[in-house]
Amino acid sequence: MLRFAEEISLLLLDEERGETVPPSLPRHTFSTVLAGAVLMDLALEERIDTDLEKLVLVDPAPLEDGLLDPTLADIARASRTYDTGYWIERTSRRADDIHDAALARLIERGIIEDDVPGLFFLSSRVARSRRYPAIDGKSIDDVRLRVMRILFEDDVPDPRDIAIICLADACGIFEALLSRSEQARTRERVELLRRMDLIGRAVTAAIRDHEAPACPSVSVRPLGEIPIARGLPMVGNAFRMAGDVSAFLTDQYLRMGPVFRVRAFHRHYVVLAGPQANLFMNAAGRTHFRSFEGWVDFNAEFGSMRSLISMDGADHLRLRKVQARGYSRGRIESRLAEAIGVVRQEIAGWPVDRPIAGHYAFQRIVTEQICTLIAGVSAQGYLDDLILFFTALLKARMTHHRPGLLMRRPRVQRARRRLNELYRKVLADHEPEGRGGRDPDMIDDLLDLHRTDPVFMPEVDLVISVLGPFFAGIDTAANVLAFMLYETLRHPDLRERMTAEADAFFAAPGEPTAGGLRALDVTHRVAMETLRMHPVAPALTRTVTNAFDFEGYAIPAGTRVIIGSTVPHRLPDCFPDPERFDIERYTAARAEHRAPGAYAPFGLGVHRCLGNGFAETQIVLTMATILHDVAPALDPPDYRLRIEHAPTPHPADSFRFRQKRRRE
């Protein structure tokens, strides 16, 4: 049997957009309905008794249920008897925990899935059948189907469904789920059901009496009053923003607060920074921002107007779901041996005791791994062309570190022609007769989408989607690995611990496993600290689509904004002594990265990196393989890191290492 909190979570779920709570639903309503759901289940389990005057503990014995037991224990500890409204208010403080636990349980039951990070959808089986998998030997219809059938037809309702409807009505959920005409049409039916409610009558009555806490009035200042970062005549802050943008935004945040303005030549931006900005982006970014404008020139180089990274709304979610399987953690975990083989193939070409270009070495490894595992095609022979073209493309069309004429240089044009050749090769390899017995990959998924819906995925947009995996790691995972190797070699104690972990991982009998990889605790934490100190995506640019107020300022529609997503990485309030490389931050005892809004290495909101799970696994596996197979050392031994910030932060070409010996 599903708990009321699970049913309410399913009722709130936006099946098309993957949102777990409608944007129009007030926070107070969300918290109250989940609190009421918990109390109704406790009453149904005969642990409490409720009426309009008081809530009485009947049986303090735990139910071994993470949704209900914390509230039951809270009631049992109380030194006196309180009314139901008191316990609704108190339990509502746990609303986020209740909701998260309900969603996790629904995933475990196979009712919803979260293949796309941060988004939740009904599983394909439930979406088609509108029935949930059998629970306690009984299969039931989808809650929304049941509720709408009761509201709009004369079906004889189940008492639990009456309770769900009355709970939803008491909290005003139907205002978010039904149109005004539908609310008017069903009003009499809801009133009848309220009189029939035997399970939650006292709870819903208390909810109706439970008013939202009064919000203090806050004066909102207009855009023109937002403080401006000091800059140079004509160029503004362009030079600082072309360098370490995370450090620049952090400096301005500490000087001016979470909202300020910057300018780079003729481009003007409002910056939102700090933990609260990150939380706002995660919670409301879909409603207030779009990413399209920042990628227009990038897409145009492929003859396209749309790509996954530039799309928003329902189209973005649809394409994200199509590509989710290809970029998933499970994809690389199921093919660890192949990923290791790519690393060893590259290592075999490294000279012994001679300088090796650090960043370039990882660009080659990462790109070949992604192409092989996600696209089913080796990029050998095209790697240098991919790196050259993509780096030029980002500099000229995305970050604008270089003029657009860069794309017309002969070397870049030759690389473009090679990419067109690679694209044709990929398509040929994915023709039905060329697939052989291999499992479908992401390219197959994209081609299926094109065949079944050429309006949504036309040929002009197919190019950038198919070539996406070939670019995916050139300036992301490769940069992280290069930074990570530098930090590892700078800290001999960490290198020894990581090498010991890697040796144990490869010494285990049989093929390497995902479980064994997850046991590389030190390596994982070194990767996490590298991502904090050296974020490869230090900020996000967006356009405001719907006006909003933030930290006392009105931000109008049409405003270009920068979200300083990694500013908290440098704040002592979030990470004490932030300039110190300290992997103990990520232990259970400290868990500094878990503070709300503090840690955002993979972006925020609906555009959060789709391949973050794949990348985390790839980074740890690649570093473990290198430390197990070779003995790397900095070249020269006293080298101090220099960072290039164009097109994205990465170690400069001066970062080199040697493999002192190849381990047998």
What's this, in brief?
Helix 22 packs antiparallel against helix 23 (459-471).
Overall number of structural domains: 3
In CATH, the topology of the largest domain is named Cytochrome p450
Largest sheet: 5 strands, mixed
Strand order of the largest sheet: 5-6-12-9-7
| Mean pLDDT figure | 92
* Beta-strand percentage range: 5-15%
What's the CATH class of the largest domain, please? Mainly Alpha
The CATH architecture of the largest domain can be named as: Orthogonal Bundle
Walkthrough of the structure:
It is a single chain. The chain has 664 residues and is of the alpha+beta class. The protein is built from 28 helices and 16 strands. A five-stranded mixed β-sheet has the order 5-6-12-9-7. The chain has a three-stranded antiparallel β-sheet with strand order 8-16-13. A two-stranded antiparallel ribbon has the order 1-2. A hairpin with a 2-residue loop joins strand 5 and strand 6. Helix 7 crosses helix 8 (159-170) and helix 19 (358-375) packs across helix 24. It is globular, with a radius of gyration of 27 Å. The model has no long low-confidence stretch (mean pLDDT 92).
Please supply descriptive tags for the structure shown above:
664 residues, single chain, yeast vps74-n-term truncation variant fold, three-stranded antiparallel β-sheet, 28 helices, alpha+beta, globular, five-stranded mixed β-sheet, Cytochrome p450
